[in-house]
Design goal:
Helix content is 26%, strand content 26%. The chain is α+β, with helices and mostly antiparallel strands.
Length: 235
């Protein structure tokens, strides 16, 4: 066997987009790149796949190495292959994204690489084509969340309907009618009402709910239509 000696060398990179919700706004986790080119500039969690690992294994390793985060679901987004995307060498990158509750992973996040959360509205300029990755990931998330209960991954184990509405408004960058949203969400059968209320924002308070996990998995592929006319908001 002579191998593929006449073929060009191509480096396989991995980029991880971690989106989190802190109860008020949708954020993204970034680090300062530790090597050239573009050393010291803000970047997604990135690295390179090793010869003995799959892309999925590489994405989990890169994420854990740079942030300490482990055990979360990563979904493959897209492979970016413009020949000029990396000025140093011919590099293609496969991007993955994750959705997490920021508070749930606060203790797991390490300081070794100084990862920081940024609001998507105040995100710094990213290296290479990573802004394109973020925009594509947001479009994918908005599309899927209009059809499936995907955004519950960003919430704590118990939450209020106003908190859920704030999350959807943050993701879609829009204002949603409060009464219609509550009615649509409760009609899905996904929520189980709790006896306690959150009174941090008003004297009357709002009841806590938690997710009916049996219905969540059963209905995940169902068309739930939380967002009316979602195509108008997906851009």
């Amino acid at each position: 066997m002579t191998g593929y000696s006449e073929e060009a060398r191509i480096v396989q990179a991995i980029d991880c987009l971690v989106f989190g919700f802190d109860g008020e706004t949708l954020k993204i986790l970034l680090i300062k790149r530790g090597f050239q080119p573009e050393k010291g500039k803000w970047s997604l969690m990135g690295g390179f796949a090793k010869s003995n690992e799959s892309l999925e294994q590489a994405s989990n390793r890169v994420l854990k190495q740079l942030t300490g985060l482990d055990g979360m679901y990563l979904e493959q987004l897209h492979t970016f292959s413009d020949p000029n995307r990396d000025p140093l060498e011919r590099t293609i990158s496969t991007a993955y994204f994750a959705l997490i509750d920021i508070h749930k992973y606060e203790q797991q996040l390490n300081d070794d690489y100084h990862a920081e959360w940024f609001s998507l509205k105040r995100m710094p300029k990213l290296i290479f084509d990573q802004q394109e990755m973020v925009e594509m990931a947001l479009k994918r998330i908005r599309y899927k969340a209009a059809l499936h209960p995907l955004l519950f991954e960003l919430l704590p184990s118990r939450f209020t309907i106003p908190q859920l509405q704030i999350l959807y408004e943050s993701v879609y960058n829009t204002t949603i009618d409060k009464r219609n949203f509550s009615k649509r969400v409760l009609s899905t059968g996904l929520l189980i009402k709790q006896g306690e209320k959150d009174k941090s924002s008003s004297k009357r308070g709002a009841f806590y709910y938690h997710l009916n996990m049996q219905n969540y998995y059963a209905k995940f592929q169902a068309f739930l239509n939380f967002i009316p006319n979602p195509t108008n908001l997906i851009s």
